[in-house]
Amino acid sequence: MAFVMLAEVLIFVPSVARFRADYLLLRLEKAQIASLALLATDDAKVSASLETELLKNAEVFNVVLRRDEVRQLALSSPIPQPISATYDLRQAGPWELIRDAAQVLVDRENRVIRVIGNPVQDAGLLIEITMETGPLRKAMAEYGLRILFLSALISAVTAFLLFLAVQRLLVAPIRRVVRHMSAYAEAPEDARRVITPSAGVVELRVAEEALAQMQTQLTGALRQKERLAQLGGAVAKISHDLRNILTTAQLFADRLEISADPAVARAAPKLVGSISRAVSLCESTLAFGKAEEPPPQLKRLPLRVLAEEVVEGEGLGGEGLGAEPGLVSCVIDVPAGLVIRADGEQLHRVLGNLLRNARQAIEAVGQPGTIEIAGGEDESEWWIRVGDTGPGLPPKAREHLFSAFQGGARKGGTGLGLAIASELVRGHGGRLELARSDAEGTEFMIHLPKRVLGGESDQA
């Protein structure tokens, strides 16, 4: 209604100005007709009573005609007050008409004005009248009220029709989308609750199509997640039973190493290694199948001591358990006084996984290589770098490096080690990232923040 009223105001102002101009032209026309009655007599004279009646019907005081270059006072009567203004309608433009109309409406005094115009039907050079502004202002006010009433009525009808249109085209489809979203949120696995786009408005139609696509993808993801959860439960049970079977087999395989048969003695280490890898796979699968890792118990601990324990536990500190002597060497470049804040057990697992992957990468090419563990700190975090001089990661492994069962870097690997390591580092509020992997080797970076909950910075 406000916008329609604004449009009506823009129409109202020139309309009132046009009404004033028409009103004055009508008075000029009536005055001309009255003067023609005078000219129709033989002596160009009428009685005083007839002259008064003609001026009253024309609603003017005086009428002046100019014909054949002669200015003639056709009709006249006493003027109650001096003339206050003169308006020439022959040369008035739109802005002058609007200005003069506004002055009439604002001025409440009844004044006498002179109006000049062209006679109708070219019955002379000009016609001039004197009249009061009171009747003019009253007629303009009545016309303005009629225009305002009509504008208000049009505005109300327009607003009502616009309200119905908005309700039908916008509000109702939006409410439908909201109902679909609420219903879908109650059971997102139910594909029947995915919205079917039906809006007529293009923008809402696009929004519904995007919502339908998102709901379809989410429903599929939830179904896949449910199937994977069921599959994970089944795999965990199988891994548990298989681990027990392989453990028993490992005990018997250990006895084969002391066999006097040379062929058995040669095959026994390979058999034991295969069974050990199978047991490790089962244990990793069971560990990853847990709902979540326990929250880290953060304590201050010396990083170099932890690194030495990990290296020794992986058989790289002595004669290389499980590796050919001298094939893989390890260098620890961690300041002796560097103390970090972390869960020692979980960080031990992270470093162990990284060292194990690095050692296997070097052993795979059969060339001597080096693993380096470095550490340091800055104002906001501690960092740990684990690098090797192996062949680097293949492109496929880099795409899903930290995804379980997808980021395996070696043949037969599961990718669980890096997935678990990344999850453990995230539990500390940090991140595990691949810093470099090329023909010269691979390098991982562990970032552990110093800022703890509450906004305080822990400076060890």
UniProtKB/TrEMBL annotation:
Keywords attached to this entry: Coiled coil, Kinase, Membrane, Phosphoprotein, Transferase, Transmembrane, Transmembrane helix
Coiled-coil stretches noted in the UniProt entry, renumbered to this chain: 204-231
Catalyzed reactions: ATP + protein L-histidine = ADP + protein N-phospho-L-histidine
Keyword Transmembrane helix in annotation: yes
Location relative to the cell: Membrane
Domain of life: Bacteria
Gene3D superfamilies per UniProt: 1.10.287.130, Histidine kinase-like ATPase, C-terminal domain (3.30.565.10)
Domain (Histidine kinase) ranges: 237-452
GO cellular component, one term: plasma membrane
The enzyme's E.C. designation: 2.7.13.3
Keyword flag Iron: no
The protein's name in its UniProt record: histidine kinase
Organism: Paragemmobacter straminiformis
